Amino acid sequence: MRKQLIAFRLAFAVLAAWFGLIPLRMVSAEEATGVAGEWKVTMPDGSAGDYKIDRHGRVEGSVGGKKVAGHAVRQNDYSTLLTFTGSDVLERIGMDDNDHISLGHWDHRADFPAKNVNWTAQGVRQQAAAPYWATEPGFKISDLAGQWYVGYDNSAIHLYDIDKNGNLHGRQNDGVQLSGRIEEHDGRLLLRFKEVDKIERITPRVDGRLVFEHWSPSAGFPDRKFDTVGVGTPVRGKSAPGVEELDRPMVDTLEKIGCSAAALTVTRGGHIYYSRGYGWSDFEHNVPMSPDTPMGIASCSKPLAAAMVRQLCRDKHFPLTFTVLPFLKVKPAGQVVDPRVWDITVQHLIDHAAGWQVDPVNKAWQAYNGSKSPISVEEMLPYVAVQRLAFTPGTKNVYDNFGYQVLDRIVVHLSGQSWVDYLRHSLCRPYGVPELKWVQGDGQSEKGEPPRLWNSFEMNEQKEYRYAVSMPVLCTFMSHFWIDGSVRDKSNPLWVKTGGWDNCTSAMVWRQDGINVAWAFNGRKWTGVGEDNFDAGEALWKNAIDQQIQNHNIR
Fold first, then answer.
1. d(CA 86, CA 108)
2. Containing domain of residue 222, as a range?
3. Which of 96, 243, 505, 553 has the highest count of CB atoms within 10 angstroms of its CB?
């Protein structure tokens, strides 16, 4: 299993190197997009530009006397991508230690990130964006209604349930029960506890979280400095015993990345023990994240793709050893220099063993022309077919994104349906898995579709493959299928599947004790070695859950 985890980490390290990301200053979560505010930008030719970026990433301004508008999307903890409305232009914004920004400019999105920037510009912040709550007129105590996870700097954890009238009930992680009431005092919010002589002052933060300044005893308020300070994050889902120990790594990672939403589900034997949503699914309209909110899951879609292909091959009486290029009727775009490409099978694709990893695909992309996005698999395959393989198919297992894109096309050809339609209606239904909800490329909801959080910015992905899935649904899938898409049996392997893409970090864990864990964040933290928040993952699927079992909270 350790070899598998190392392979996953190496795969993400390769992706990080390919994207050419250079670490800059970690941006505080309080800064929302990290670049919110008004900026004066100096272009390479000495001309000036003005960018105004609000908390929600909306951009307006002027460049060379021309008005521009667009959207800034937080990609990870040090990088933001800026796209312009009506223009095939992209800029990546990084911030240095002096609160200056550097803008790398690509004229064509498909050139990003494979080609170097066309030019770079420097910017200086003229004015910071107004705090979130300060811009919301008529803020009142009822806006705090709901459940809050509060982590203090002395490692204490409080879970608070607040009703619309400001009445509070909660508990500490040591089991002590708390109750109190929130009231307004000199324009500030104060929480007065009933059972104990304590008081907390609540200050809304720019990113929608709350700061809790704690005095004990309250006789020292307000002249005496607070004893401890905590940060409150909205949480949704049943507050079962011990849930705060699972909440801790989720909220810590949410804070570390600086993203706005996350979800976690823990199941065993078809029973949901914990299902939690963290942060905001609609930050602008004050809508907390529900545990049932569908999210983008990046590479955690691969087990679903493998399961679809296996099921179709069984139903159509196709062996998994049938060769891919002849089946898809690929006509090579030139002379085939490596005849081993004709030997690549569906099983090789499932096993990440086709030999197409990284270099052959990159060369094919550039040979195609490198200036069109998105590029379909059908357009790419003729050019991939004339590249030399990295190794003989079936002799190695090296993480392969392109191979799974080809599996998607095989699903379409075998089923006669779109990839998403087969996923929704044919794979899931026979096993009692709720239908997955498709998020269309234009972001519009289908009729009857629940609210969802689309959190992926994938420029080279075909629209028909975009969908979102909630963590309870993903755990239900896991209860019927293994990581390679095979039907789950009574064996007890340990499998870990991680996913990471711009604005997305996800994981699926099949534990040896039968517990399934799924979680996702709408942000990504690049560590420099491609680990993608694996620290949170280990805390969740091993340490925290082991503690829940010892406490008999999971049976």
1. 12
2. 138-238
3. 505
